[in-house]
Amino acid sequence: MKVALFVPCYVDQFYPRVAIATLELLEKLGCEVDFPKDQTCCGQPMANSGFQHLTTGCDANFVRNFRGYDYIVSPSGSCVLHVKDHLHFPENQGIADTIRHRVYELTEFLTDVLKVDKLTARFPHRVGVHQSCHGQRGLHTSQMSELNAPAFSKPGQLLSLVQDIELVELDRKDECCGFGGTFAVAEEAVSSKMGKDRVEDHIRHGAEYITGGDVSCLMHLEGILRRQQSPVKVVHIAEILNAE
């Protein structure tokens, strides 16, 4: 299976190890991975700030880079959701719509397309899972606790396949971390308090690591942990699933 790897700009700039782990993991699982070299920002920051009309260049570039692939996979739920919901290409909207239906967040690709039921990964640590809002409520990678419906979690299902990992139970397992993209800039005080509450839930239950499918949320939590001089670390789920 040939897939295109979509690496969001903040992953590329701040957490390249997440992109490398994603690449290695997909290859371990039998995928032939291509990395379109001219890819850049998907346009989400502008759209989130109310400037969707400024994303036309990003949209056109995304179409140029990712047209023709059967699957496009990214280790970022928020960027994937943006592409799924907002990719526009007036010159040929049909191509854009095809791409929108072929882009996947990593954990949904592993569970829904590859149907992974076995991993060789080993991660002997206590881990708390942060369910990012874009993944949970936008991409439906896990069930929302406010719904009276059967529980499921695609990240949790994959993590359960990892040897020696111990997943901790949180009091508020799907609470927002407060990052919210530009919200963290416009409402920094509220964002910081929400992040501190999210961190405290993990610490209270003895987590050594906090993991999730969105590096932006993990970056926010990592900043708080560092300021508190906490020994708790953050790690993207791709790094755990790829661990040996």
Automatic annotation (TrEMBL):
Q: Where is the Cysteine-rich domain?
A: 3-83, 127-221
TM annotation in the entry: none
GO cellular component terms, alphabetically, are:
cytosol
One GO term in the molecular function aspect is: oxidoreductase activity
Q: What's the protein called, per UniProt?
A: L-lactate dehydrogenase complex protein LldE
